[in-house]
From TrEMBL:
PROSITE patterns attached to this UniProt entry: MOCF_BIOSYNTHESIS_2 (PS01079)
Ranges where the MoaB/Mog domain occurs: 172-310
Keyword field: Magnesium, Metal-binding, Molybdenum, Molybdenum cofactor biosynthesis, Transferase
Lineage: Bacteria, Pseudomonadati, Bacteroidota, Flavobacteriia, Flavobacteriales
Record's protein name: Molybdopterin molybdenumtransferase
Record function comment: Catalyzes the insertion of molybdate into adenylated molybdopterin with the concomitant release of AMP.
InterPro entries linked to this entry: MoaB/Mog-like_dom_sf (IPR036425), MoaB/Mog_dom (IPR001453), MoCF_biosynth_CS (IPR008284), MoeA-like (IPR038987), MoeA_C_domain_IV (IPR005111), MoeA_C_domain_IV_sf (IPR036688), MoeA_linker/N (IPR005110), MoeA_linker/N_sf (IPR036135)
Cofactor: Mg(2+)
Pathway recorded for this protein: Cofactor biosynthesis; molybdopterin biosynthesis
């Protein structure tokens, strides 16, 4: 059994970036990272653009101007202004080339076909210049930039329809257990509704990993070997829930050994999630997570999250850890380090009741994990504790 720190370091050393390219439409590229530098095909803005509703002026020495026309956003025509002339203009509209500045409408008085401005203004005032954001051929976004909603909007404004991005891993989730059934059935005695695969799928989706396939396998050695062999060959990452302990009907460990999966580590000195397995077969990373739901999800956030970030070549591979003040007491049972389900808010954290690895209801309202090292025997109210912030 190894320490948490050793397990994390082995994991980081073992999982390498995929560094594969794929092409996505701009609508489906959110959450991906650019595979290469991206250059702007146009100027943005593509014309001198009014920054507000007002009046475009061809400046002269007086404060009174003749109003000759109007330019709305989207209009293509360009009125020709002489000195002392103005056109009504709206935010985002193309400023005529013969206009020197735009005066906001709040500082203009309209009298018949004339306007009177409150004060003199400088040239180019309230005009967004051609290519102010980016010019044709300039670097728009660097390789490795995460395509956030703002980045998607920016690239869309440049007319970019498709982008080359780093491929995300293909992922398989395998739920094991004869006791598991789908919720579409009535619940017979001795059975439970399968939830781990849906829980892990939701966790992956929340992190914007969508190439996920779910599989089920009964507690049968040959079926387990066959299923694992197929998914390991077809995916970059395999998450198995249950069947990794040493019971008479736990066949995952035996099947992984049969398939010559290289064991990187098995069993970590922690609670929950002690019977955690991580291994590799060629370029595929394999996690065998505990069957208890809270233990499986804890291991996902502490370990699988790191693997996913490494595959995407991200530097900040772990979830953020901060110091927070406990607003509850907790007596730790046993001497193993523990990850405790908790609720964090504004510098304070509450350790919740119901810390059993089988209990999902506590995790359902948690947004953090409090880490209690093996030296800690009790957490008192107002103690400062290490807190892992979970994705929301």
């Amino acid at each position: 059994m190894i320490s948490i720190d050793t397990a994390i370091q082995l994991l980081k050393n073992s999982v390498k970036p995929l560094l594969l390219k794929t092409t996505k439409t701009i609508e489906k590229a959110g959450g991906y990272f650019l595979y290469e530098d991206l250059y702007s095909p146009i100027n943005m803005p593509p014309f001198r653009q009014s920054a507000m509703d007002g009046y475009a002026l061809c400046l002269h020495d007086d404060l009174t101007y003749n109003l000759i026309d109007e330019v709305k956003a989207g209009d293509a025509h360009q009125p020709i202004l002489k000195k002392g002339e103005a056109v009504r203009i709206f935010t985002g509209a193309a400023v005529p080339n013969t206009a020197d500045a735009v005066m906001m409408q709040e500082k203009v008085k309209v009298v018949d076909n004339k306007i009177v401005i409150e004060h003199r203004i400088n040239k180019e005032h309230n005009i967004r210049p051609l290519g102010e954001q980016v010019k044709t051929g300039d670097l728009a976004l660097k390789k490795g930039t995460k395509l956030t909603p703002a980045a998607i909007g920016y690239l869309s404004s440049l007319g970019i329809k498709n982008v080359s991005v780093f491929k995300k891993p293909s992922i398989a989730i395998i739920a094991t257990g004869n006791e598991l059934i789908e919720a579409v059935q009535d619940l017979p005695f001795g059975k439970i509704y399968e939830s781990n695969s849906k829980m892990l799928l939701a966790a992956l989706y929340s992190l914007k990993f969508y190439d996920v396939n779910i599989h089920k396998v009964a507690d049968d050695y040959e079926k387990t070997v066959t299923k694992l062999n197929t998914v390991i060959n077809d995916h970059d990452l395999v998450l198995i829930t249950g069947g990794i302990s040493v019971g008479d009907y736990d066949f995952v460990g035996k099947a992984l050994k049969k398939l010559q999966v290289k064991e990187i580590f098995y069993k970590v000195n922690q609670k929950p999630g002690k019977p955690l397995f991580f291994g590799k077969k060629e370029d595929t990373s394999i996690f065998a997570l505990p069957g208890n739901p809270a233990a499986a999800l804890t291991c996902f956030y502490v370990y699988v999250f790191i693997a996913l970030q490494n595959m995407m070549n991200r530097d900040a591979a772990e979830l953020p850890r901060i110091k927070a003040k406990s607003i509850s007491d907790f007596n730790k049972k046993g001497d193993r380090p523990q990850f405790l389900k908790a609720v964090y808010n504004d510098g304070k954290v509450e350790i919740l009741e119901g810390q059993s690895s089988a209990m999902q209801h506590t995790f359902a309202v948690s947004n953090a994990l409090v880490f209690a090292s093996e030296e800690v025997t009790k957490i008192n109210m107002n103690d400062t504790v290490e807190t892992i912030l979970l994705p929301v």
